[in-house]
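FIELD: query
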Amino acid sequence: MKIDFSEAKWHILFIILVLLLIYPLLFAVSTSFKTMEEAYSSSALIPAAPTFSAYERVFTTIHFVQILSNTFIIASIVTLFKLVTALFAAYAFVFFRFRWKTPLYFLLISTIFIPFTVTMIPNYMTLTKAGLIDNIYGVALPQLADATGIFLLRQYMKGIPSSLMEVAELDHVSHWMRLRTIVVPIIRPAILSIGIIFFINSWNDYVWPAIMIKSEANYTLSLALQMFVSSEGGTDIPVAMAVASLTMLLPLGLYAVCQKFIIGTFAQSGIK
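FIELD: result
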């Protein structure tokens, strides 16, 4: 059997990169099953004496179910509204005819490049006046629309055969019916994959919830993780890693189930 060394070196390189990427995840899960003493004294991936004490402390130290619920509610609201606004906006930019459509589209897409720090203070001041500080809905409110979703859905909609829409127009089918019966079924994989990306990004968000949330009852999982990390030492490493492991379960599960849709969406986003 002849070995192609030119290809083998790339396989070896990719394997090394994959190991480097998954090592922190394996380390987090492994450390969550260690005792405090072993966590500080050993970096081995296999615990010498596995224990569930860290997970027990998670559920007894904090209101984990409430925090999990807060995170899920915020991520669900953000994902739903981002998808709805992206779907309607993308449909308008593809199938509506109106003046200044192209400049308006590029102006909208340019908001992707605006740093979060630019909008952070105005959003905070607005929500303060609205009385939504330390409120999970205040965390979700500024994130109800996203230009990236509009861009991706627009690229998919541009690939829909024009003959389908022309026939619908000749039959005097309303835009709502065209969207519901023609467009959505065709781009359903893209909607699903983009929705998962939105959900995971909101699930993992830390900076904005840290600014908005003050009380533990309204914490998200990312803020709960910070509770067990001390900048002055004394960090409860096993418990922190237990929270981290629980936090990444749902996003990893969603990605594992729907990875082909996610990869396919980005692979075809530039193909008409």
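FIELD: remark
The radius of gyration is 23 Å.
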